[in-house]
Amino acid sequence: MPFDLTDPKSLSLYDYSMYMWKQSKSLKNTNSYHHIVALSKYLGLVYVYKQKRKTHPLWQFWMRDKVSYSKRCLFHGGLSAFVLSTMPSFNKLDEETKRSLLVAIRFADNPMAIPVNCGKLVFSLYENAHIAEQRLKKVLNKTQKVKMDPSQTDIMQFKAQAKDYFQASMRELNLNPQTPPNQSDGIYIGLGSAIVRIPCLLKEISKNLTPDIRSSMDLWEVNGNYHKSWDYLIEVMQENNLLGDSLDEQKVNHPINSFIVNSYAINNALLIKVENKAYPQLRGFLDSLPKFDSYALVEKNENDLIEEIAQKSAKIDDFIKSLYS
Fold it and tell me: With DSSP H G I counted as helix, E B as strand and the rest as coil, what are the percentages for the chain, rounded to 5?
């Protein structure tokens, strides 16, 4: 039974599921429950795909049967969860574990429908299954020399969802000025301005993206290295006037900068400016944080320093000329 009926070169459903299981086992901080969900995510396809077999008469016993498949219904996680629930070994688990496994599989492609009273295990199982599949897709695409670049439609949807979830994501970040800079996601310096590490903001926003967009943008695993989505996220910030252009009279020349806070460098960071008129609830939340009572500087590169010195020198020259004019 193929995994993808539309792809003549598709792996079998068995092989695809087994590869997902192997990828899950290679991930850190996982256990057998994570591997069960990865292995069971597409169990429902055994019901969705209807087999049609054409046999041959006995006198043609050496000929292989012709087998084809068609869809009898649309696939969804509920079918996989049901198939898993019928297995005798599954029913030997305790009730809480069974519930977590079934919910993670049932809503694997619709995380917004996961019940709010579910524990952290459900979300861990959900994330792990998709990370395992994303890694598998990378392996398969590398083998087949296929690029995983997002389409323009994917990029537009990512930007729209990033805008929608910006405020909620900001509230989840640790921007407390009393937290050491090397242990936080950034720092709120007051008056609506916050220095925010772009990988931390992207990671928080990605948790709210729909699974298909998160997959197409390759955002199941976000680390501190440059990611192509940084550019699209910056576009969202610029289009909604969320980037500050100065910090304590220091000009900010680029969207992504390094900032010095308490002698500690915060790299790959944005200076986000939250206006009270446009985002009153988020601004109120940020203003409720402890007061920032230290200093923050923009780290300038050589070209920026040369340009700044030239501009200031020109102003001095103009001033001197005005004294003798």
Answer: 50, 15, 35
Query: Would the CA dihedral through 103, 105, 106, 110 be positive or negative?
Result: positive
Chain-centroid distance of CA 251 in Å reads 31
Going from the C-alpha of 132 to that of each of 18, 36, 138, 202, 282, the distances in angstroms are 11, 12, 10, 20, 34
Give dist(CA 122, CA 129) in Å, integer. Answer: 11
Q: What pLDDT is stored for residue 75 in this prediction?
A: 85
- pLDDT for 325: 63
- Beta sheet of 264-273, edge-to-edge order: 186-190, 193-197, 264-273, 257-261, 296-299
Place of tokens 């901080």: 29
Decide if 187 contacts 266 (C-beta within 8 A): yes
Dist CA 316 CA 325 (whole Å): 14
Q: Are 23 and 134 in contact (CB under 8 A)?
A: no
Query: CB neighbours of 86 closer than 8 A, spacing ≥ 6?
Result: none
Tokens of 254: 């680029």
Q: What is the pLDDT of residue 277?
A: 92
Here the tokens at position 228 are 């192509």
Distances (CA, A) of 71 to 75, 78, 80, 107: 9, 16, 15, 21
Task: Decide if 16 contacts 30 (C-beta within 8 A).
Answer: no
Radius of gyration (C-alpha) of the chain in whole angstroms: 27
**Tokens coding 289:** 């944080």
Residues of the chain under the 50 pLDDT cut? none
Residue 284 tokens read as: 């109120």
CA distance 179 to 159: 30
- Is residue 172 within 8 Å of residue 204, measured between CB atoms? yes
**Which among 226, 111, 218, 234 has a CA at the least distance from the CA of 163?**
234
| Calpha distance 173→73 (Å, rounded) | 42
- CA–chain centroid gap for 192, Å, is 26
H or E stretch at 258: strand 257-261
